[in-house]
Specification:
The protein is α/β, with parallel strands linked by helices and 426 residues long. Helix 2 crosses helix 3 and helix 8 crosses helix 10. The protein is globular and about 70 Å long.
Length: 426
């Protein structure tokens, strides 16, 4: 439900490139070491966290700088697939977009390999290097053969180019929406595991990671499905499939980032009016939101009063104004999110934004907000987690994956109240 657009590997805002790309790693050193170790040991990855937490960026940095090997990456957003055929086509497009076949010699070598295969379902256009796909749309066997050929094609590419290949799958659980038989998805992951130079990285939410691990631990009536689940579960347990959770960043790291990025633009938060604390409350551990907000503050640097040492100060009122402009721009998006939720989930999400608690099941909280009792609260929480709107920091404590959505709910409820006052409840 949460849009994946922000979390795609877009360039950082132009004003922040020098600072943000170095500071994004602060506070993530342990996760970076884990990811680098996994890639170095040829282990597949599931990297989970809220949008803007740097899931994709950390893997790229770990592969490029932490392992010391050459990698070629392919990007696949499973939201764009509506069936198995379109998923296979996305894999072809991922190879095309990497531009790896633009060199004529490479193209000719790979065309020779394709010609040697029994099933001529793929070919390379001589002029553009585009990888074309021809399939019998009604034949599951052809689709399975096409998928196997593409995976073998990637392995062959890796060997010819003397590189390893990383396949990034975003929104991978979306495949469950159109593929009711999970054997296809499980076989795909196990097949990639068998390829010596091809690794996959599932980019998802913490809720999706928890769901994946729970599913693999659940007994299935289908013996084939159960066997495949057990095989993947063993990979988790042995560390050959490494799960990495990216929680919220600590305030000390975000404060350091904000101070450094602003200083490069000769800006600073007013040290006396609580503007830094308000900034940290707004972004609530999200590096992505911190980058977005700092970039917008820098864009308006000529509007801030000057200090004697030539550093312009940002007052809390100016920070609030910039944040409100962003909320107004995104209002239609946030309204749509709430409108698409079942009433119980929408009400609970609103309550958690306006009145945060680590005990949403408590009698006092339920009575104060006139919420449904018993299992209805737990069901709503699970629903919000599955949709990627909430995640567990630790047992019983939930955070918004989109802190600016939480802020927008405040603003919609009390538009005349200064933003810094939204957080006075602690």
């Amino acid at each position: 439900m949460v849009s994946s657009q922000r979390d795609k590997q877009q360039p950082l805002p132009f004003r922040l490139k020098g600072t943000a790309e170095s500071l994004v790693l602060r506070g993530r050193e342990a996760e970076l070491r884990t990811i680098a170790s996994a890639i170095g040991d040829d282990h597949d990855l599931l990297v989970a966290g809220p949008p803007g937490s740097g899931r994709h960026f950390l893997v790229k940095v770990a592969a490029t700088h932490g392992v010391g090997l050459s990698f070629l990456s392919f990007e696949v957003d499973c939201l764009q697939a509506s069936n198995t055929r379109s998923f296979v086509e996305l894999l072809c497009k991922a190879i095309d977009s990497s531009k790896v076949l633009t060199v004529q010699e490479q193209r000719a070598t790979m065309q020779t390999w394709l010609n040697s295969q029994d099933a001529q379902i793929l070919w390379i256009h001589d002029e553009t290097g585009k990888l074309n796909l021809q399939l019998d749309e009604t034949s599951p066997l052809e689709l399975e053969l096409a998928l196997e050929t593409i995976l073998q094609f990637m392995q062959e590419l890796a060997e010819k180019l003397c590189q390893r290949i990383l396949i990034f799958f975003r929104n991978f659980t979306h495949t469950h929406a159109w593929e009711t038989d999970e054997t296809w998805e499980l076989r795909l992951r196990l097949r990639i595991k068998e390829l010596p130079d091809v690794l996959y990285v599932l980019i998802g939410t913490i809720g999706e990671l928890e769901d994946d691990m729970h599913r693999l631990s659940t007994q299935s009536k289908d013996s084939e499905v159960h066997e495949l689940r057990q095989s993947l579960k063993k990979l988790y347990e042995s560390g050959e499939l490494q799960a990495v959770k990216l929680g919220p960043l600590g305030n000390e790291y975000l404060a350091s980032f904000a101070d450094t990025a602003l200083a490069e633009a000769k800006l600073m938060f007013n040290p006396l009016d609580g503007s830094l604390d308000t900034f940290l409350n707004i972004v609530d551990g999200s590096f992505g939101d911190a980058v977005l907000l700092i970039d917008r503050l820098i864009a308006r640097q000529d509007e801030y009063p000057e200090k004697t040492d030539d550093m312009r100060q940002i007052r809390v009122e100016q920070l609030s104004e910039v944040a409100k402009y962003w909320l107004e721009e995104q209002q239609a998006v946030y309204e749509t999110i709430l409108l698409m939720l079942p009433p119980r989930q929408a009400k609970l999400l609103t309550c958690l934004a306006l009145d945060p608690t680590d005990k949403p099941h408590s009698r006092s909280y339920i009575e104060r907000h006139n919420l449904y009792k018993g299992g209805a609260i737990q069901g709503a929480l699970l629903g919000l987690k599955k949709k990627g709107l909430l995640y567990n920091v630790h047992k019983g404590v939930y955070k918004f994956t989109l802190p600016l959505l939480r802020l927008w709910i405040h603003w919609r409820n009390s538009p005349q109240v200064p933003i810094q006052n939204y957080f006075n409840h602690g």
